Amino acid sequence: MAWMNLIIAGLLEVLWASTMKMSDGFTKWPFAIATVVGMALSVVFLALATKSLPLSTAYPVWTGIGAVGSIIAGVIIFGDHIAPITWIFVVMLLISLIGINITQGH
Question: Residue 105, SS3?
């Protein structure tokens, strides 16, 4: 269940980052409210995950899901242009997160 909470927390990171962009500097209230709610829920789910996962694993995975997810959301939803070399670094980030998980506790 801890991993599910962590994945939900990471996906909520992507949600609030996307709605923050959509809020246009917090001038569009529905998106601004969604941003704040998404932030709060993301932290709640992270806290639940850290009840049984080490912080040294949970926090980087949480931020990693948020970072990679936000890049993908930026490209798909907002039409952001990402240089090809940037995708290499995104893959390296994913590999790093997998490495953190694999070596956890060693």
Answer: coil
pLDDT tens, position by position, 40-79: 999 999 999 999 999 989 999 999 999 999 999 999 999 9
Structure tokens at 3: 């991993």
Percent of the chain at pLDDT above 70? 98
Looking at residue 15, its amino acid is L
Mapped onto helix, strand or coil, the DSSP state of residue 50 is coil
Total domains present in the chain:
1
Nearest by Cα to 37 from 24, 23, 50, 48? 23
The pTM (predicted TM-score) of the whole model is 0.89
Going from the C-alpha of 32 to that of each of 19, 23, 51, the distances in angstroms are 7, 5, 29
How far is Cα 22 from Cα 46, in angstroms, rounded to an integer?
24
Range of 40's domain? 2-102
Backbone angles phi, psi at 103, to 5 degrees: -95, 5
